[in-house]
Amino acid sequence: MPLDFIRDYLTELDATIRALPHEQIAGIIEAVRDARDRDAQVFVVGNGGSAATASHFAVDLGKGASHAGDRRFRVLSLTDNVPWISALANDLCYEDVFVEQLKNFARPGDLLLAFSGSGNSENVLRAVRYANSIGCRTIGLSGFAGGKLRDEAQECLVVDAHHMGRIEDGHFIVQHLIVYYLMTHPEAGPAAATPAAARG
Fold first, then answer.
1. Nearest to 27, CA basis, from 184, 185, 180, 174
2. pLDDT digits 0-9 by tens, 169-196
3. pLDDT, average across residues 98-109
4. Could you tell me where the beta strands, DSSP code E, fall in 11-110?
5. Shortest CA distance to 168 belongs to which of 139, 138, 142, 147?
6. Judging by DSSP bridges, how do beta strands 155-158 and 137-142 pair with one another?
7. What confidence tens digit (pLDDT) does each residue in 110-169 have?
8. CB neighbourhood size of 58 (10 A)
9. For residues 18 and 197, what is the distance between their CA atoms, to the nearest angstrom?
10. What is the residue-wise DSSP string for 7-45?
């Protein structure tokens, strides 16, 4: 019955959300804020549903989290230039559709956030490897057991679920936590982001 499915899905989703690592999310917020304050470029990548999350994240950082503050995010979703992606996939290979874009844009000190439910998408992994090799900071967001992304990214937040839908739900919540914190605290620095530290 649909009602049983809905109830079970939401029950399991609630458990997934409750298990999200608060301190790790706070650290990612700080990394994103730091990139903004250093005027570093922020890149986001992902496939399929994760591509949609990456695009949404770029919109929210580029507009919502930038409009209210004096400092704006230089953020780019590498999922959104369809002609470029299709040219790379056709002329090279699909595994290179993100890394080749990074070769044009990425510089040491930039930040790459890589979404992959499985953690094993080769095009995402190649982007992470290249970003690491040139001195970017890399943060993965994965699910299941983290996949290869858990080891390839300098840091990886793993949503504790074994269902792709709930993993993507978790990623979406994480990106909204990041963005809405930065929207409501546009000038927040490290001390404001960590109240306990501020109290000494």
1. 174
2. 999 999 999 999 998 887 755 434 444 3
3. 98
4. 41-45, 74-77
5. 142
6. parallel
7. 999 999 999 999 999 999 999 999 999 999 999 999 999 999 999 999 999 999 999 999
8. 22
9. 24
10. HHHHHHHHHHHHTS-HHHHHHHHHHHHHHHHTT-EEEEE
Superfamily of segment(s) 2-187? Glucose-6-phosphate isomerase like protein; domain 1 (3.40.50.10490)
DSSP code at position 71: S
Calpha distance 55→159 (Å, rounded): 19
Q: Taking the C-alpha atoms of 56, 61, 65 and 70 in order, what is their torsion angle to the nearest 10 degrees?
A: -150
Beta-bridge partner residues of 137: 111
Instruction: Give the whole-angstrom CA distance, residue 75 versus residue 32.
Output: 10
One-letter identity of residue 174? V
In the sheet that 41-45 helps form, which strands lie side by side, from edge to edge?
A: 74-77, 41-45, 111-115, 137-142, 155-158
- Full-model pTM: 0.90
pLDDT digits (tens, 9 = 90+) for 3-47: 999 999 999 999 999 999 999 999 999 999 999 999 999 999 999
